[in-house]
Amino acid sequence: MYSKSSSNIWFGIDIYVCGVPVKYARKIFLTLKFNTQLSHQVLCGAKNRSNQRYSVPGSSFKSFGMSYKHLSKAGGRVLEQMAKDADIRPGYYAKLTDKTTPAFAKPTLPIVNEESRFKDIKDWKFLPGDRVVVVKRGKWRGKVSRINEHEVNTNGYILEEGPTTYVPIPKDFWQPGQATHMANIPVPLRQEDIRLVADIDDPEVPGKTKTVAVRDIVFRDSYYDENHKKVMPYRCVVGQEDLIIPWPKPEETADGELATEAQIARERTYVVDSVVKSAIPKAALLTIRNPKSKFRRGVLTAKDISKLVAPQMPLPGRKAYIEQQKKLAQQPKPTLTDEYKEKIGFHVFEHFKKKI
C-alpha cells in the first residue's frame, strides 16, 4: 500500500536532510526524488493488532530506492555511488542512518551485507509457521511462539506475539483502526536467540508425545515436498538423526478474481494436426513477428560477417610484434665494465663535491 500525498514527500525530506552536512544534502535530495513513495505494511497480520511493523524505503543507504533504478539512469548512478560510499565508510553511514531515521522505521538488528544474507532454507533453518522458543536473556526468555516472517535485510525472525517495542508513529503511517501516535511494533530476533520446538514420542509414556526444544538441526538427503511443491532437505536433530522434524505447511492463499481452476488449466484445447503446415494464418504473421527485425533482414552487414569469419592466427599486428621481440632478443646485451663504473663514480663524486 503506497501513499502519494505531498505531506509524505516533505516528511521524508525533513527526516533525511535534517542534521546532514551540506555536501551530502543534494545527494540525499536526489535520492528522495526517486523515492517519494513511502510505504508501510503489516507483518504480523490481524491476529495481534499490537504487532505491527512499519517500514520506510531508504531507512538505510544501501536500500535507498533500489526498486526505482529503472526510472532514470541518472538516479541509478546516484544510488550506486551512495551504495559504494556506504561500503567504504560503513561506520559513518551507520551513525548517519541511526541519527536521521525515525524510531518506527529504524532496524533493531544491524543490516547485513548482500553476501552475508541468508539465501535458502538451509541458511534460515526455520520457516514461517515453525514453533520456536526464545532463549535470549530477558523477559521473553522461554516464550514459545510461531515464526511469522523473515526479515531479509537483517537475517532476523519476526514472531507472532513476540518481542515488541513501543514507538511513536506519524499519522501518515497509521494503520486502519489506529487512534494514537504510540504503537507496539515487533522486534526481530537473531537465529542464535531462538530454538526449534517439536513434538516427539515420549519413551516413558507410550502412545503420547512431548514437546522439546531442539539444540540444533542438520540437513540430510532430500525429498519432494507436496506442500511446498519443490525438493527440500530432511531436517534432522543433531546427535539423533533418526528424528526428522517436518517442515511447516505454508499458508493457503485464496484465489483471486482472475484465477483459473486447475482442471480448466489442464484441459487441452489445441491439437497439432500437421507437422508441415503452420497453424498460424499467413496474414497474421506480421502481427506476431517484426518483419524489420535484424534477424529477418536477410542481409549480412560487415559487422555480422566479421563475427562469423574467424580471424587469421596470429593477427598481422601480433605477428609483427613477435618478430620485433625476436630481433631484440638476438641483440647482445651490454655489460657494465670497470671503465664505466669509474666514470659513473667520478661524475657522482663531482656532483656531491659542488654541493659541499
TrEMBL record:
Coiled coil: none annotated. GO terms for molecular function: structural constituent of ribosome. One of its GO terms (cellular component) is mitochondrial large ribosomal subunit. GO terms for biological process: translation. InterPro entries: Ribosomal_uL24, Translation_prot_SH3-like_sf. Pfam families: Ribosomal_uL24m-like. Belongs to the universal ribosomal protein uL24 family. This is KOW domain-containing protein. The lineage of its organism: Eukaryota, Fungi, Dikarya, Ascomycota, Saccharomycotina.
